[in-house]
Specification:
- The strands form 3 sheets. Strands 2-1-5-3-4 form a 5-stranded mixed sheet.
- Helix 4 runs antiparallel to helix 5 and helix 4 packs antiparallel against helix 9.
- It has 9 helices and 15 strands.
Length: 372
């Protein structure tokens, strides 16, 4: 009726015809947009009287996690000859009948992580091992309690905690170290090839390139475990300690039974796992494995402890070998004896190679020993 107010309020006469055109017949094409936490976001034809509820229905309805109390309608207005955007905040429960205008843009916000269910894992010597859905802010001690606590055979010192976030950081660090070593090795090999002046030197350079290529292939295959060193204890003691981490998705705790061996790997005459004996030292287990070979780097021997910590003679110049060798080992510990790259032709020209390989191995949390 308002269309006919004033001058358009004309009296009808016999045989007059009144034709009401549709918006489509009149070439009128206007839209409203719906985005955010709806099933079919997009643009939809506007019709007079269209409401917030009907527009969201055209978009398939709201998804789980939609913030229905904070729906925003962005509306264009013309003010003083300029287009101005105003934001109208609506509550769907009260404002579903809100009448829209052409070109309105509806945004249905989504609560962060509403559709994300994070999972953590606990395995080994707990009463109920398995996969658990993570509660926000949950700590490792909470997960252990949910899993029924430890079984009597749990070996706390050998517990292995891995984090997906730590794995990504470690892998990036490893990749950077490998790239650094790759650049240095190529520079060294080019220099060696250019300075070779005799058939024997040319042959030696070729052998060195092959050895370096083999070493780089080995290093490029190293993958970070994401292990974080942890000192576990009975639940009452562990709760609230510095190692009672706040958990994140894909974190894993593995609690083994006590190991009965110590491993010795790398450049020793008989790499193997040696039966654990209480209060025995690094020197003792090295002797059990035949001792370091003539190609071993005695100054770079290190221990990968079962709890994820690394201990090396190279960590401090104040260590005498006898001091390092007198370190008492625990079940599950591993002694790694690296190769001495100065004994490999031309590889001694690769600056800091031993140091970089050591960093790659300890960052990855693996017992890495390259052989030639």
């Amino acid at each position: 009726p308002e269309l006919f107010d004033g001058k358009f309020n004309l009296p009808l006469k016999p045989y007059d015809q009144l034709e009401v055109l549709s918006r489509q017949d009149g070439g009128i094409s206007e839209e409203v947009n719906v985005g955010g936490a709806v099933w079919k976001p997009g643009s939809f034809p506007y019709s007079p009287g269209m409401t917030l509820g009907s527009a969201i229905a055209l978009a398939g309805g709201h998804r789980f996690g939609a913030l229905l109390s904070g729906i925003e309608v962005s509306r264009q207005r013309i003010r003083d000859g300029e287009a101005v955007t105003s934001i109208i905040t609506l509550d769907y429960a009260k404002d579903a009948g809100f009448v829209l205008q052409p070109h309105d843009y509806i945004t249905v916000k989504e609560v962060k992580d509403a559709n994300t269910v994070l999972t953590v894992h606990i395995r080994g010597e707990v009463r109920y091992p398995g996969e658990y859905k993570l509660n926000r802010g949950e700590k490792l001690s909470d997960l252990i309690q949910r899993a029924g606590g430890f079984l009597p055979d749990a070996y706390f010192y050998g517990a292995k905690f891995t984090s997906e976030r730590a794995r990504k950081i470690q892998q990036q660090a490893i990749n950077d170290l490998i790239s650094e070593l790759d650049i240095k090795s190529k520079q060294a090999m080019v220099t060696a090839a250019k300075t070779a002046s005799s058939p024997d030197e040319v042959s030696s350079a070729t052998v060195a390139q092959e050895a370096m290529s083999k070493a780089m292939n080995t290093l490029k295959g190293v993958k970070a475990q994401g292990r974080v060193a942890i000192r576990l204890a009975d639940l009452d003691t562990f709760r609230g300690s510095e190692y009672d981490f706040t958990l994140e998705g894909d974190d894993t705790l593995y609690v083994p039974q006590q190991y009965n061996f110590v491993s010795v790997v790398g450049s020793v005459y008989s790499p193997n796992s040696v039966h654990y004996e209480p209060n025995r030292t690094v020197d003792y287990y090295l002797k059990k494995s035949g001792g370091p070979t003539k190609d071993a780097d005695d100054d770079s021997i290190y221990i990968m402890r079962a709890n994820g910590e690394t201990f090396s003679k190279r960590q401090t110049s104040s260590f005498a070998f006898s001091g390092f060798g007198s370190q008492v080992l625990m079940p599950g510990d591993t002694i790694v004896v690296p190769v001495n790259f100065d004994r490999v032709p031309y590889l001694r020209l690769v600056k800091d190679m031993s140091d970089i390989v050591f960093k790659i191995a300890t960052t990855a949390g693996v017992a890495l020993a390259i052989h030639y």
